[in-house]
Amino acid sequence: MTHTLSRRNVLKGGAAMAAGALALRPPRAAAQESVTITQVTSSDQVPYWQFVNDQFKLEHPEVKFELIGVGYDQMLSRIVSQITSGAPLDIYALDIIWVGQFAGQGFTLPLDAELNAAERAAFLPGTLEGLQAGGKQVALPAAAWFKNLFYNTELVQKMGLTKPPATYEALVDACKAAEANKVLARPTGWGFNQSEGMICDWTLILHAFGGQWFDKSGGWAVNNDNGVAALTYMVDNVKNAVFDPASTTFSDRDVMNPYLAGDYFAAAGWGLYGWSLANSATDSKIVGKADVGLLYGNAAAGTVSATCSGVSGIAINKDAPNKDLSVQWIRSFTGIGHRENVQKAMDLSGMPPVQAWAWQDPDLVGKNPALPKLAEQAKYMFARPSANVARYTEWSSMAQIELSKALTGQVAPKAALDTIVANGNRDFPGINF
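RESULT FIELD:
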């Protein structure tokens, strides 16, 4: 029903009518109370976070942001100190190697209920799984880092091949032939120095050989037959110089240098980072010769390929002052409902897309033609055991020492793995939060 009020009607109706007219006026909107969302991330990601903040304020003008950007090496201590001191903190970047620690200490707000089935399925395969602990999604993917096989098309042809070897067995044969025929002195190498990078390369080789971190009871299982075969392969081929003996001195980033110089026919590198380096006239001598394919499988284990996940996450503090707004923010951040953000993440902060569609998108592929090939590797993604170990960095340091002993000939592969398992079961049991 429509009510028509005029000055005459109000005057004729007297005070009662006037009161009725006043009652029909819409109430004055109360001024929205401002809120501040506090965030911590690494300095390199700040440009993209700031973009999302500016975008978010268009829909939520009442929101203010305190965006704290720190160097990666300071990020863990800054986040932990913010949470444990009770200082305001809503949203923070979460490295995949901190998942177990943060879940175990109750620092994260589970996000399972914030994704429907279609939204979950839209993420690049393997990116959600590495950010889960105890069956709960403790963070959403922020950048889809994982290792790929980069190879030199010219050197592959000189080796008499049409494409890189598909298996670790064939890799050895190809390297031996290249050395014997004096095509390459050192056909390839790995990042096997005593660092986290070694754990990354061990992760992908272990799983290619059919190994796993834990058995069904939750005990460490890296010393089973598959694990021993994987480490024996690593040790033997460094010892016999099938792989560059300098591998024990290389980090997983250093090992790209001989590849970029044209000395290796192939190397394992981190996704878009490796592709960008290989096609940079400043950093690479093989521009125009670089291509990307699947990392090797293992014929004996019947595996096609395996890679190591380095996915970075984004999490919400369990005690965040602004939980609902924070959930809306991270959904936008990951591209849910905001497809344009996927390109912005790449353009502003070099963050590989976490949405599966982006790796096939014509506009994005036009700018990054390797995207579809890179994405194929995600189907074979495995994470380090960081989601199942509360003190992962301590476990990793222990494992690095034992693996280095094997790779430098101080102990046998089986003995090194037995020590890792014994120490792991005693000091770093697999846990389900």
